[in-house]
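INTERNAL AUDIT FORM
Audit reference: QA-55
Scope: verify that the stored structure record matches its stored sequence.
Auditor: D.O.
Record contents follow.
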Amino acid sequence: VNSSGLVAPKIPILQVRAVNTDQSYTSGSVTKVQWQTVELDSVSGWDSSNNRYTPTVAGYYLCGGALRVSLSNNVERFRCWISKNGSQASDGNSIHVGLQHTSDTLENSNVPLPTGLLEMNGSSDYIEVYFDSEENATLHDSTFAKSYFFAQLVHAT
């Protein structure tokens, strides 16, 4: 019960952000997205040294967010994904979103991270965010729009 007399549930919920931190990305590689500030972490599951979330309650977590990207040139393709235990494949252990056009038309923007559910075991499973592109880029390049990532327990198992 909080100071207003309301019952405040202790469900695992996380939100981290990055604003104007200029994380460099080199084309042709895969990079783990780094987050600057923890806005909310109800179970202290965020590891800032590894930029990963290890929730302490087993269940299904709704994940999503947005990523601010400044591209060195207009590009045809880039993708970002939320990964369970470092998975980079579309194997059910990550949630992918990719943007692709037939010509170099993608430019600087705030792109949505994929939104979906990941099942976590509540002890050793962890969640991270990754990015790759065909051109060099800078993540979190501006104060115009923050990058953020969230995860919230929606069904305990």
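Auditor finding: record pair retrieved intact. Residues 29 and 134 are 9 Å apart (CA to CA).
Action required: none
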